[in-house]
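Protein Record: Sequence and Backbone Structure Tokens
======================================================

Structure line: whole-number tokens from a learned vocabulary of local backbone shapes, matched to residues.

Purpose: to set a sequence beside its fold so the mapping can be learned.

___
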Amino acid sequence: MELNKQQSNFEQLLDSIYQTHCVLQENTQRIINQNLTLHNWLVGYYIVEFEQNGADRAKYGERLIDEMAKILKQKDVKGFSPMALRSCRTFYKTYPQIQQTVTNELDNEPFISAELLLSRLSYSHFIELTRVEESLERLFYEVEAIKNNWRVHSCRCRANDSISELLRSRRNDRRRQSSNRYYPMC
């Protein structure tokens, strides 16, 4: 009887440790994700501010991103390829609401609060969502990604499906217009 009680206490101990580990590991991942997202948003912010206000802009021109990537690599800063820097810039331009003081620039467009976006979406989600050009459509995908707890792959597939559907629709519209050119409807 005493052995069963000790075994039960031991299993409870292990279960408590396991649950604590899982909860805190999940919290750690969420915080790291939020910090990475904020990091990349700020990098985009710095790039855009430099492009818009920088006196050195003429010196670098179109090569700004490439030059930044080269110098950051020389300084042994990893993860800032030209493509990554462009993604940061696009991310900042697409999600200005992450900085609450910028909300006036949104012209009353509907958006999800920065806190909710940052707490539920990873930077990889944001990169996929920046590919959706229409803000209302992007809002739809943000809501769906949060509500349905989409993984990045799901977000990518659904957004790509939408873009593909839009392209098919435009192609079909052009075909109808060209075929109706010679045969007007009565």
About this structure: The radius of gyration is 24 Å. The chain has a mean pLDDT of 79.
